[in-house]
Write a structure and sequence with these properties.
Keywords: Membrane, Transmembrane, Transmembrane helix. By secondary structure, the protein is an all-alpha fold. It has one domain (2-242). 76% of the residues lie in helices and 0% in strands. The chain has helices spanning 2-13, 16-35, 43-50, 57-60, 67-73, 76-81, 86-119, 127-158, 161-185, 191-194, 198-204, 215-242. The two termini are 21 Å apart.
């Protein structure tokens, strides 16, 4: 299992698409701060505004899930023939995009934060503000992992790259609005569903939504992310066990 993960990570990190995506994101993060150079935007304001992009990461991690490609190329069967169990293979398929996404986000974050301090003035920056932002990001990570777990689960069900991509994007982009519409037209009880959506909880961690969040208020979102990850992974393994791989 470990050797398979290492091999897939090596393949993923050396893909041209991965390198181009990473380069574009790094250049965008640095150039954004470079354009803001001057007295109008400070480090405090730049970091605060950047936090509003947390929900967008859900769509970024989607591109690192490559199950549909392997199902199309019929390479998964070769892996299973080599002796790797279905359970370990499925878990590997969850772990690999998590690591690739983490590397991408970490590098982009390093370059973005570094460029803010390089090009912009501190403003009202304080250690308490930086700690609070760090806690928000840390509590968002389990929700991103949950999104990846859902993506892997969805890709095994749909098996088609385009069907998977459009369905994944539509669910995360439109589900919140659809549930809110049901709340308005049918019953307020649907807010119970809205409040446990992955996107709702990621948005709740942004300073724009909740500027005065404490760690105790953030932890339920992180816990929800872990719960979703376990649920989607277990269901995915059960489905994969029964799936015929050609």
């Amino acid at each position: 299992m470990l050797n398979y993960i290492k091999a897939e990570l090596y393949k993923g990190l050396n893909r041209l698409s991965y390198k181009v995506t990473l380069l574009v994101l790094v250049l965008l993060s640095v150039s954004t701060n470079a354009l803001f150079t001057g007295p109008k935007v400070t480090v405090f304001e730049s970091l605060d505004m950047a936090m509003s992009c947390l929900p967008a990461v859900v769509f970024l991690v989607m591109m690192y899930i490559d199950v549909t490609e392997e199902l199309k190329d019929k390479t998964l069967r070769n892996v299973m023939v080599s002796g790797l169990s279905r359970e370990k293979l499925y878990i590997s398929k969850v772990i690999i995009p998590i690591i690739l996404s983490f590397i991408t986000c970490l590098l982009v974050l390093i370059f973005f934060v570094g460029s803010t301090f390089l090009f912009l003035k501190p403003g009202n920056l304080s250690p308490a503000f930086l700690i609070n932002l760090s806690l928000r990001i840390l509590c968002a990570i389990p929700l991103y992992i949950a999104a990846i777990s859902f993506g892997v689960f969805l890709s095994f069900i749909l098996k088609n790259q385009y069907a998977y991509a459009y369905t994944y994007a539509a669910i995360f982009a439109l589900m919140g609005s659809f549930i809110k519409l049901l709340c308005a037209l049918v019953s307020n009880k649907f807010y119970g569903i809205y409040n446990i959506l992955i996107t709702t909880n990621i948005s709740a961690l942004t300073p724009i939504k909740n500027p005065n969040l404490t760690l105790l208020q953030m932890l339920p979102s992180a816990g929800l992310g872990f719960a979703y990850t376990i649920i989607f992974t277990i269901i995915g393994i059960i489905i994969f066990r029964k799936m015929e791989i050609k």
